[in-house]
Amino acid sequence: MKYSLLFFLLLLLQSCTNISHLGTDGDRLKQLDQYLAEQKFTKALSFIEGTSKEDEQALELQEKRKIVLEQLRSYEKQTINTALKQEKNNDWPGARKTYKEALKKNRTSKPLKDAQNSMVKRFHGKMEDLDHEVLILTGEFLQKKLPLLREHFESDPDDRSVKWSYSRSQNDARETAMELLRLGEQMLAENNLAMASRTVPLAAKLAPEDLESQSALKLLDSRLKEQKKDKPEDAKAIEGF
Hints:
Blueprint: H1 2-26, H2 28-37, H3 41-49, H4 58-63, H5 65-88, H6 92-105, H7 110-155, H8 160-189, H9 193-206, H10 211-230, H11 232-239
Helix pairs in contact: 2-3, 3-5, 5-6, 5-7, 6-7, 7-8, 7-9, 8-9, 8-10, 9-10, 10-11
């Protein structure tokens, strides 16, 4: 009786193992459909490629490969278009989120990675442009503010508050002038004379005693004259800044 029960349990265990094995094989198509429903197309492709050729469903899975690829390309195109629209509307957080969610599902998608990298470059470029505009506006503000503070200080030199404010603004002007000069030199190196024309002269006005600023201003004037000889219309447009 004891051995009969043991033999029965062994048969039952073997039967369960066989059923489990059949169930796993039978679920491969279902698993593929699950990946597609979750928009995990690259995972679906890896799943197909990882299926043994001896598997009874290998042929069916390979036949679905083309469909998966088409769905992946469509998903990539739709994702990129969505992100571009968000970017156009200045919704950079939304665009980043769109790519993040898409790549979370399809980490090996090269088109999505490339599109995301391009978006990040454009974002950094935009932020850099905004920083430049803020710097220029700061310089222009200080250029207007300093003469007023100087007049106030000269009219009442014993007022500590006025003296401190004037001294602080002078320091701000020197620091801003140096930042404008560095940016202007960068623009000259890149032959961006339009931006150089907005930064170098402003730096020279904020720090007229600075020799570097005056040197950069002379270089800018020389480059503008050279450009005027080659392209008169472009030079006139730059001088309008």
